[in-house]
Structure formats: C-alpha cells, structure tokens
Design goal:
Strand order of the largest sheet of chain B: 3-2-1-4-15
CATH superfamily of the domain at 99-202 and 348-412 in chain B: FAD/NAD(P)-binding domain
Largest interface: A-B, 33 and 37 residues
Number of domains of chain A: 1
Strand content of chain B: 15-25%
CATH class of chain A: Alpha Beta
CATH superfamily of chain A: Thiamin diphosphate (ThDP)-binding fold, Pyr/PP domains
Largest sheet of chain B: 5 strands, parallel
Number of strands of chain A: 14
Largest sheet of chain A: 7 strands, mixed
CATH topology of chain A: Rossmann fold
Number of helices of chain B: 23
Order of helices and strands of chain A: HEHEHEHHEEEHEHEHEEHEEHEEHHH
Shape of chain B: globular
Structural class of chain B: alpha/beta
Helix content of chain A: 25-40%
Number of strands of chain B: 23
Distance between the termini of chain B: 45 Å
CATH architecture of the domain at 99-202 and 348-412 in chain B: 3-Layer(bba) Sandwich
CATH class of the domain at 99-202 and 348-412 in chain B: Alpha Beta
Oligomer: heterodimer
Strand content of chain A: 15-25%
C-alpha cells in the first residue's frame, strides 16, 4: 500500500476527452493489491478505455464478485455505479441490473476462481442470455487472496509456489465461451495495453456479452520459474497473430481511407472493428475454425491472444425478451405497474 | 537513443532545475528540506557554502532559479526560493563558530583584491582559510561594493549587509578603505602573488540630449551615482516631481528611493512596451504598489531648460509594431518635472589600467577574460563580477569569485589555471522501509505564499525601513512543502524490471513510458503524456530484460512523489538523493582529491 494517495497535479496543460474530463476523473481509490499486480494494469487499461471513449462516469455500472480481481472496481471510475456481490454471483447481479436499466454501460470484473469455479454456472447462463456487458476475467491461475492455491484455469504441469505441480485439466474461458454460444471472445495480457485497450473498447461497443480473458500475472504467488502465467512465460509464449483496431464512429471516415484491413466488422453503433492481420484460413466469425485455432495453439504450449471470435448479429437479452427501449427507471409508474385490473386481464391468457 | 548515463553529474544536476539555473549552483531542495526540519543554521550554512551571502541574496537576488523551478511548470507559480533563503538568515542562530577560519600560520602567498564587492569578498572567503594573506583595496569607507551603494536600505538593511561582509573580513582580511587604485602598474610593482579585480561596472550611462549641460544648478542625475550619494548621506532630498529614465532594476531603486526623499509624483519613463522591460517583475510590482507611475512608449528627446533651470522633459510618443522592432512617432509632449534621474544602464570603466601592461581589452573596452578561469590576458591578474563581463548581478559575481579563487590557488601553487578540479556527485537511497522515505514525498497543493510588506502609510517614514517583513512561521511551513524535492531522483535499474507497468499506471503526471527505442524526436511522439518541453531531458534505460523495450522518463513535470518506486515489485525504481559535489578552492567540510600533489600542500592547511 503506497504511503500517499496518488496526488492530483493541477498541470497547466491537461488533456481532456470529448466531455471535458481528464483521465484522473476516470480513476478510483488507491489500489491495495500487491505492487506489480497485473490487475492494476488492467485497471489502468479500463481507465484509459472509458476516458478515451468519453463515457460519462455516471453511465457506467461496475460489478464484481469476490477475490483479488473483484476488489478492482474500487480502483477505477470513482463516479460510476458499483456492486460488489457474493462470490461467483457477479453475472447474476449484472443480468438483473441490465434487465432493469439497459441504458448503462456494464462492466463486470471477475477472476478465474470467481468465474470458473464457484461462479461457472452463472457465467454460462449470462453467456446464453447474451447480457449486454463486458465480462472481464482477470486470469492469474491462482487463488491469490488465500495464498496461492492453483485455480481452475491453471495449466497442467504449472508449478505453484509451494506444493505439487497441477495435474487437473484447466478450463479455458475462450473454449468455454465458444461452446456456450458467446458472441464476443477476446484474450489479452495485462502487460500489453496496446492490445488490451482496443479489445476493451470493442467489448464496450459490442451488443451482447463480451467475454474478455486477460492473463494477469500474480506477482506474489504466480510469477516464478515453472509458472505458466508469469510475466516472462506469457511474453515468451504469447501468440499475437490476430491484430485488431477499434475505430470509433467519429474517426471512421478519416481512418478508413487507404487502410489495408483484411476484414472489418461494423458494430451496432456504427463503430468498426478492423482486423489488421489474421492467420491464413482464420475466420473470426466461424466457431469451428476459432476453436481449432485455439486448440492448435494450446497443443503447442502457446497462448493465443487477440479478438478471437465475434458475431454482431445474435440478439441480446433485451432483444430476446422484447423489453422496452428505455430503462425501467424511466418508464412512468402507470406503465411499469399498470394495476391489478391489467394483471387480471393478463392472467386470463394463462388460464 | 543511447541509454542515459546517470553517472554523469550533469544529468541529474539538470533535473534539479533551480540548482542548474543558479550560477553558484546552490543546493536549493536540500536547504528547503533543512528549513522544513527546523535546522535553520544548517540551511544557512549550506547556502553560504555556494552563495556566500544568503541574507543579502535572500533579499536582492535576481532569482534565476525561480523561472526555472519545476513547480512553476506544474501549478504556474515557482517555489519562493529567494524568500526561503532569507528565512535561513532570519531564523539562524549564532553560526560564527561554524564559519571557516583562517589558519594562524600563513602560506606565504599575498593576493590583492581590488574592490570589496561580492566577487572580491567571495575570493577572500575561499582563500583566507587556505592561509593566504589578502589585501583588499576599497574606494569607499565601507565594504559591500554595489550591494552597499546601489541597493537602497529599504530593500537591504545595513545590519544584514554588515554581518555578511564582516564575517569574511574578520577572517583577517587586510581591508584598506578609502583606497581607490589609480594605477595597476604601481600595484603590480608591490609584488603580490596574484591580483583580483572586482571593481564592478561603476559608470552610469549618460544621455546626451539637448539641454543636458545647460543647467546652472544640476537637477539631472546619473542613477547609480545618485543612489551612491544617497547611500552615503550626501543627498537627502529631491523635488516633488521626478522623472526616471529607463526601466531596469536600478530605475526601480531610484524611483522608490525618490519617494522616500520627498518625491510625490514619480514617473518611470520607458521607451518600449512592458513586456520588454529589464526590471524583474516583482520589482515592478513593488514600485507600482507604492504609487509609482510607469509610462510606456515614451522616448526622451530633450531636457527643457528655462532660465538655467530644469522645468521638464520632452518625449516622442511612440507606436511600436508587432514584436516592438520598429516604431513611429505619434506625437511629441513635454512632461514637467523638478528632477530627472537617468537609469539607462551602466558600463565598465578601467581608466586606471594602463593599456601596455598586457591586459587586453575588447572593442567595447571590456577586458578579455577567460570565462572558465576568470584570468585576464595578463597571467596572475583575474577578474570577476561586473568587472569581468559587464553588468550581471550579485549571484554571478559570487560564482565568478569561486572560480577565480580556484584559479588563484592553482596559480599560486604552480598548477595550470586550466586544470579545474572535477565536479562530483553522490546518490543515496532515501528508502527507510516499505513505502517510507526520508523526505516528505506527498504533493502539497498549497499556493505560493505572498510576502507581507510594511503598510503603505508607514513605509516612507524613513529611508532605511525595510519594506519586506519576511515570511512568518506559517508561511514558511506552507512554502517549504511546495518544493518538489527535484534532487531526490528516480533512479532506475533496467535489469530488475519485469515490465508490469505498475509505475506507469501510478504516475500522477504520466511521465513514464515503456516502448521500443528510437531517435529522441520519434520517442517524444510516443510518450504516455505529450512531450511539451523539449528542453527537459528524456531518461532512457538500457533494454529491458523481457522484451528489449526501454523505459523512458520525461523529466519535465515529474513531481518526485516516489509512487513509481513504491509500486515497483522488484525495486527497479528507487528514490535517491542527488548531491552535486562542487569544488571550491577552500572546502572545509569535504576533503577533495587534489589536482596535483603540489597543490595539495596549501589545501590541507584548512
């Protein structure tokens, strides 16, 4: 824990975004995580993402469960709505919140323990419902808060700081997402914001659940020799064949001229995800091809990162249920609660 | 870029902007920390080591440090460095037993100092502890040079000036008052081992316009001569309407002195617009606070003399083009007045140096002096202060004095004056434990403290009532916290870095970047925050172990809060106090490696 709070320096020249806010307006409380924790880098990437997108802080809802990762919403966008839920239940709270008020931008922060162990069932159903949110897994392969036991994302053979090497097969959130029908799947690395920030931006723009798995080394319990989620290991085994840019609506015209993108996907708000390079025969909208690619890399001991899969067409939670276009809090009371006579009328249909 | 060589004293020295800008390289952040700790004696002595006259300079310095201060780039107002220097002098106790003493046994060398101003006194201060015998010739009856004659007492009280000049003379200087030197040839015959010339730039510039010499009784004065006469009590009054021609710091002293001698309507006449004034902004402010009128764009044309008596002055009213390069006359007006003081500059004058002795002069009649050694073209004759390169200011004179003392010591020890002792440095970790530093690392948002002045109604009652009251304890406490501790450096060790980005994310001014290496112009386009100040260095590390990228730090607005070091999991960053090891001819606190064994004998004497 640092001795001082990060001071706000009133520099004469301050960069502001489109709504006049400085990047410091998107920061939060001081992190109490270990110095050098990958999660803090992800926090910084989220700060950059929302600042650069000029999302009004009060239009953001940040949610989490339990774990080191789940502490981090405190450390970004102090002006946002927040909910720190029970272990593994971030997905359920997010689903409910999104159902009630679809107008906010939702970002859920979870960890490999929170999402792939206790919360796995909830994650699966949030994916099925295609809740419009960014679902970010800060994936370090260990239970950091309880002193570094291996987690469900730990690779076979990875050696914990103490004890025997892991022998149980890991759950890969990307392969899980492919099977469950996820509409946006990306993997990043906390040590590479140049890649992570565009992924986050595209995830925010995506209409549906954007599952982003971010390898986030635990400096205290999983950054040693023999770990497969250390800074050094990831840097040596990361494969960044799929490179993408996120082009916001306002920049589209000037950027698209002369750009040699191999593929472009237009998001529902008009912004564009541009695949700068993808391997031969790779189709980021073909589940089979993507799964084959990820498994192929896995078998070679490599970690494929980038925007691995995306599909903008499937309906999200609200499309599926034909809900009103406004958040429930904006509906007049008479519409939200039409009274017992209307209820009686409705129930006749079910008799 | 090549990795930054942080073992070169110049690199970190430049990061300490105030110290870099100071001609005498005073260790400003260190003395501010000492003030913060209540160690006023130590703070004073640390100042004295480099600038010799903390009490005097704390009131009168031209403050090259303040425009350079990093705090100015952060919140617009530099730390009140000069005022804090005065605090060390105001609050110190008796430090006489910690001032270097001259040894009883002399080294047998005799040095003549001409003038008893700041440069000559610095030479004496540095050489006396080494056993030199110094004879100082002063034309007036009191020491101080222009600090005495040109700076009015309401800015620099006599007791402060007396104390800081006397402490040097008390080392045993053979001071000879009322002894102007009239011939260098005669002085050379007296067999001194070296001669130091510190006579200032004593001649005020003349303004030869029509009417200048038509008065019966003179009411037109040369500024510095007039101030000198006031200082020695030869002039005690002035007319009620006074025009000051010129708008430098001497003009400010003239107009404010006039107010105290009976002047009522005082106008300072400037040829050019305000942004081209030579006077320090704070001196302009102080004068205007007292009701002085500063009139721009008026070029003097003639003195209006009626019946042998000065009645006014005629001016062309000018209109300047953009950039104030060319002007045209709009109209011509006469401003009535009783007295005129000319304060349009001053220059060197050496009527007493015979031109056939080997001391070369340039086309402007300024002696040819080596700016590193302060030696003239006549070996053994050294210059310093305004006498060397024309009018500068006190702190430059002190810097010259230190260099000249080194040269004289070399010269008298048969060492080449060009063999300068090396500048050294020291870096010491300030880590006291987990997230604990030996300095106060938090950023304090306090704004610059304003100096309190004597009330206007009381201010003019006497000529020697000091206007500035000095900082109160509360003001001092706030102001010291504004210092950003720029000497506590962010020292980086590339081999330890795991590129986790923690330092980059925590930096409150986004001055850190990890990126691929490149040329400086290219790197500056790829920084976390835009590079706004290309005069400030980029620190570039060796290639980082995992990716071969480099750590780049833009030194511009780093607030030295140490958060990078606190968040670093591998201690690749550390906060280390940088101390510049400045060589002096005499240094009683630090033993130096002598340039040559021959020179050492005389140095050990201290």
């Amino acid at each position: 824990m640092p001795s001082i709070t990060k001071p706000r320096i009133p520099l004469a020249v301050q960069q502001v975004n489109e709504i006049g806010l400085t990047i410091h307006d998107y920061e939060g409380a001081m992190s109490t995580l270990c110095a050098g924790c990958g999660h803090d880098s992800i926090t910084a990437a989220i700060v950059h993402t929302f600042w650069e997108l000029s999302t009004p802080p009060h239009q953001i809802a940040k949610l989490s469960g339990i774990g080191c990762s789940s502490k981090t919403p405190t450390y970004f966008v102090r002006g946002a709505h927040g909910f720190n839920s029970a272990h593994g239940r971030m997905a359920t709270i997010a689903t409910g919140a999104n159902a009630a008020n679809r107008e906010l931008t939702y970002i859920g922060i979870s960890g490999d323990g929170d999402s792939l162990s206790i919360g796995l069932g909830h994650l699966a159903h949030a994916i099925r419902r295609n809740v419009n949110m960014v679902y970010l897994i800060e994936n370090n392969g260990v239970y950091g808060l309880t002193k570094g036991q291996v987690s469900p994302s730990a690779d076979i053979g990875t050696r914990p700081k103490r004890g025997e090497p892991n022998a149980v097969a890991p759950i890969d959130p990307m392969l899980l997402g492919l099977t469950m029908g996820a509409t946006f799947l990306a993997r990043g690395f906390s040590g590479d914001k140049e890649q992570l920030i565009p992924l986050l931006k595209a995830g925010v723009a995506h209409n549906g659940l954007a599952l982003i798995d971010v390898i986030s080394p635990c400096v205290t319990f999983n950054d040693h020799e023999g770990s497969t989620k250390s800074y050094r290991y990831i840097r040596e085994h990361e494969v960044k064949e799929i490179q993408t840019d996120y082009v916001p609506v306002r920049d589209e015209i000037k950027v698209s001229i002369g750009a040699s993108a191999s593929r472009e996907v237009v998001m529902h708000d008009g912004s564009v995800v541009r695949f700068r390079s993808v391997p031969k025969n790779y189709d980021p909208s073909d589940r089979g091809k993507v799964e084959e690619y990820i498994r192929d890399r896995q078998s070679r001991g490599e970690v494929a990162t980038g925007l691995l899969y995306m599909n903008e067409s499937p309906p999200d939670l609200h499309d599926l249920h034909h809900t009103p276009t406004l958040g429930l809090n904006k509906l007049p009371f008479s519409k939200l609660c039409p009274g017992s006579l209307e209820l009686d009328e409705l129930q006749k249909d079910f008799r | 870029m090549d990795p930054t060589n942080d073992q070169d004293p110049n690199y970190y020295h430049k990061v300490v902007d105030c110290q870099w800008a100071c001609p005498a390289h005073t260790d400003v952040p260190s003395y501010i920390r000492l003030i913060a700790q209540g160690q006023f004696d130590d703070a004073y002595l640390l100042n004295r080591e480099s600038n010799v006259f903390p009490g005097i300079l704390g009131r009168t310095c031209d403050r090259p440090c303040e425009p350079a201060c990093r705090r100015g780039r952060v919140d617009g107002e530099p730390v009140a460095i000069c005022r804090l220097k005065r605090v060390t002098s105001d609050l110190k106790g008796d430090v006489s037993d910690r001032i270097p003493k001259a040894p009883a046994e002399k080294n047998g060398k005799r040095v003549a100092c001409i003038g008893a101003g700041p440069s000559a006194l610095t030479v004496a201060n540095d050489l006396m502890p080494l056993g030199y015998e110094i004879v100082m010739f002063e034309q007036f009856s009191r020491p101080g040079g222009l600090m005495r004659t040109n700076i009015p007492e309401f800015r620099l009280p006599d007791n402060v000036l007396n104390e800081e000049t006397q402490v040097i003379l008390d080392m045993g200087v053979d001071i000879r008052y009322d002894s102007p030197i009239t011939s260098l040839r005669d002085l050379l015959k007296e067999g001194f081992d070296a001669i130091f010339v510190g006579v200032g730039a004593p001649r005020g510039k003349e303004l030869d316009l029509p009417g200048r010499h038509d008065e019966i009784e003179s009411h037109i004065y040369i500024g510095i001569d007039w101030l000198e006469s006031v200082s020695f009590g030869h002039i005690e009054s002035i007319g009620s309407r006074v025009l000051i021609i010129g708008v430098g710091n001497t003009a400010m002293d003239c107009c404010r002195t006039s107010l105290r001698l009976g002047g009522e309507q005082i106008k300072v006449m400037a040829r050019r617009p305000r942004e081209y004034f030579k006077a320090s902004p704070w001196e302009l402010d102080d004068a205007e606070e007292e009701g002085i009128e500063i009139i721009v764009n008026h070029a003097p044309k003639r003195f209006v003399i009626d019946d042998g008596r000065l009645v006014g002055m005629e001016f062309d009213v000018l209109e300047w083009d953009e950039g104030a390069q060319h002007s045209k006359v709009v109209e011509t007006i006469i401003i009535e007045c009783d007295d005129v003081i000319l304060a349009i500059g001053q220059e060197n004058a050496f009527p007493w140096i015979e031109r056939d002795l080997g001391v070369e002069f340039d086309e402007w009649n300024v002696p040819v002096v080596d700016s590193a050694t302060m030696e003239s073209t006549l070996p053994g004759v050294f210059f310093g202060g305004d006498a060397a390169f024309g009018p500068k200011n006190i702190i430059w004179a002190v810097a010259h004095g230190h260099e000249a003392a080194i040269s004289i010591n070399n010269y008298c020890s048969d060492v080449s004056v060009h063999e300068r002792p090396p500048v050294g440095m020291n870096l010491v970790s300030q880590k006291m434990g987990m997230s604990q530093w030996s300095y106060h690392n938090d950023y304090n948002p306090a704004s610059r403290q304003q100096m309190t002045h004597v009330e206007l109604t009381k201010r003019f009652s006497s000529l020697n009532l000091e206007v500035e009251l000095g900082f109160t304890v509360e003001q001092t406490v706030r102001e010291v916290q504004r210092c950003l501790n720029c000497d506590v450096q962010t020292a980086f060790r590339a081999p330890l870095c795991i590129e986790c980005d923690a330092c980059i994310d925590i930096c409150p001014v986004q001055c850190l970047t990890i990126t691929g290496n490149g040329q400086e112009s290219d790197l500056r386009t790829r920084l976390s925050a835009p590079s706004l100040n290309v005069d400030q260095a980029l620190y570039v590390s060796a290639p980082l172990p995992q990716t071969g990228r480099v750590m780049v730090k833009d030194e511009d607005v780093c607030v030295h809060c140490g958060l990078c070091a606190e968040r670093c999991p591998t201690a690749a960053w550390d906060m280390e106090e940088f101390t510049l090891d400045i060589p002096y001819a005499s240094n009683t606190t630090i033993l130096r490696i002598p340039v040559r064994s021959g020179a050492a004998t005389s140095q050990v004497g201290s």
